[in-house]
Amino acid sequence: MTAIISDHRVYTATDLDDALRFLAEHREEGWRPLAGGTDVMVGVYRDRSGGDQWLNLSRLRPQLAGIGRDGDFVHVGALATMTDLRRSALLEESCPLIGRAAAVVGATQVQNRATVGGNIANGSPAGDTLPVWLALDAELELASVRGQRRIAYGEFMTGYRRSVREPDELITGLRFQPRSGSTGRMYYRKVAPRAAQGISKVVFAAIAGWNDGRYENVRLVFGSMGPITVRARAAEQCAEGEAPSAQLGEQAAERLAADLSPINDARSTADYRLRVAKNLVREFLAGNLG
Amino acid sequence: MNQHAAIRFTLNGQPREIAAPPMQRLLDVLRQTCELTGTKNGCGEGDCGACTVLIDGVPVVSCLVPIVQVEGADVRTVESLAEGDQPHPLQAAFLKHGGTQCGSCAAGLLMTACAHLEHGGETDDATLRAALAGVVCRCAGYQQVIASVQAAARGGETLDGNHL
């Protein structure tokens, strides 16, 4: 183990400018950002996945861990931890699903280190917070020496653990418009082998606006149901402008297969995953959840 | 980018400077370099909590912390609890109330409970179960663990020779 680990190289950036300068100068060399390390270290020690050159971001926490208002938006820094998300009164008020998702990312010992940006950059199909960001229409901020750009989280992932992030870019944060329970319905559920510390079989985040007793801007989002976190668009369209009912739930559930592509793997089966997804959508749109 | 940069941190109240590969696990530095073997290596993937230590007062799994990220931090292990022959109140309570059996998870439970009590956490059953959920006990001694932490929080735990 020691022989392998001694080959790894780490550059500790002093601040954000230093990190971006380093990424720009070494953009062809495969350096990867290291935030809380809770995913990276498992890969490094299990199968040496992820490479062996790391840009340590721990000194950027004063710049990138804040959670606050930004005009009409709520802004979350990339180095905010899952514990930070759980404890934020602003996030609880702006979208309680965020804290619920952060609370099921491993144990508290992991939540104290694991970061928002790390969860996003790692891009696991089973990432617990990812469906919430997608359901919120969150925008990611990517910074480089070339400047900053914002993109919808829904456009970030392009395939299994692949994203549009350029090698010289760093995820610095995200923002979203607050959604309170009084203006809609929302629900989050992680289905795993046990209540705590499992890797998900199915993750579900649903947010729907509410206008005169009818759903609008419906977002039905799933994790662990394909190579990336995905919106069930056909089911969403089915519910748009409709009032909650058991019949609507049944109809939308039957359209899930159009967008979801679950697989059989060590954690579950495609059949079970789709069955659970249908149950969740049916009950949510019937008005029984959230 | 030096492969064996010196890492400076505080370990159990003492300043330390360690030369180690930057991605080496804090767990390995503690056990091998510092010869503090109270912290146990369980699953090595952040699931079992046996290797829990406190960094700046916050419980973390030391198997997932690269030593490079410990620079400047305050690290406390289970060895910091007792003062000489005097066990920490949590240790005394664990011994008296059966909170430890095989001992694999004991250091993780003690440090997690220590942080919880230091931060003024509540000690009702439900709160403690949530606070300690990250440490898996294979002896299934959870009820005694809860009772031990509650006894330590009440204070006044004393041990006689039968418990040591």
Summarize the model shown.
Chain A is α+β, with helices and mostly antiparallel strands and 290 residues long. Chain A is built from 13 helices and 14 strands.
Your description of this structure?
The complex is a heterodimer of chains A (290) and B (164). Chain A is α+β, with helices and mostly antiparallel strands. Chain A has three domains: 7-55; 62-176, Uridine Diphospho-n-acetylenolpyruvylglucosamine Reductase, domain 3 (2-Layer Sandwich), CATH 3.30.465.10; 181-285, 2-Layer Sandwich (Enolase-like, domain 1). Chain A is 32% helix and 26% strand. Chain A has helices spanning 2-5, 16-25, 40-46, 61-64, 82-87, 89-94, 96-102, 108-111, 116-122, 130-135, 233-239, 246-253, 270-285; strands at 9-12, 32-34, 53-56, 67-70, 73-77, 139-144, 147-152, 157-159, 162-163, 170-176, 184-191, 202-211, 214-223, 230-231. In chain A, the strands form four sheets. Chain A has a five-stranded antiparallel sheet with strand order 4-5-10-6-7. Chain A has a four-stranded antiparallel sheet with strand order 11-12-13-14, sandwiched between helices. A three-stranded parallel sheet of chain A has the order 1-3-2, with helices on one face. In chain A, a hairpin with a 2-residue loop joins β6 and β7 (147-152). In chain A, α11 (233-239) runs antiparallel to α12 and α12 runs antiparallel to α13 (270-285). Chain A is globular. The termini of chain A are far apart. The mean pLDDT of chain A is 94. Chain B has 164 residues and is of the alpha+beta class. Chain B has two domains: 6-80, Beta-grasp domain (Ubiquitin-like (UB roll), Roll); 89-155, [2Fe-2S]-binding domain (DNA polymerase, domain 1, Orthogonal Bundle), CATH 1.10.150. Helices cover 30% and strands 14% of the residues of chain B. Chain B contains five helices and five strands. Chain B has a five-stranded mixed sheet, sandwiched between helices. In chain B, a hairpin with a 2-residue loop joins β3 (52-55) and β4. Chain B starts with 5 loop residues before the first strand and ends in a 10-residue tail after the last helix. The mean pLDDT of chain B is 93. The chains are: A alpha+beta (290), B alpha+beta (164).
